[in-house]
Specification:
6 helices, two-stranded antiparallel sheet, 112 residues, 2 domains
Length: 112
């Protein structure tokens, strides 16, 4: 089993949240711009729908809304998935199990 991680768009939102939290400590002037960017990303990826979060609710409680999105992303990122052949049909790199490698070799002969 391995953590599922996040794909590109969700990683970008996670990075924006990290920038927001850093700005809260070091550069409060950038907070509103980063918050707007986070809302735009959340809306674009339909996370607002998944979390039943409206723009007015987001603006009323920006810190709480961003924390809610962060918890949602963290849950996805830490979800356990089976380690093995995935959507691209390639065995995992690195410490792939011998069984995965053997299965890959067997299925490769059928694709020829």
């Amino acid at each position: 089993m391995t953590d599922s991680g996040l794909y590109a768009e969700l990683t970008a939102i996670d990075d924006s949240i990290a920038r927001y939290n850093n700005a809260k400590l070091n550069n409060k002037i950038k907070l509103s711009d980063i918050a707007v960017q986070i809302w735009d990303q959340v809306k674009l990826q339909n996370i607002a729908t998944d979390l039943d979060l409206s723009e007015s609710d987001f603006k009323k409680n920006i810190d709480g809304s961003i924390e809610r999105v962060h918890r949602w992303l963290s849950e996805i990122k830490s979800t356990k998935i089976k380690n093995g052949l995935h959507i691209f049909g390639m065995p995992p790199k690195g410490d792939a199990s011998p069984i995965c490698s053997a299965c890959w070799q067997i299925t490769a002969t059928y694709r020829q």
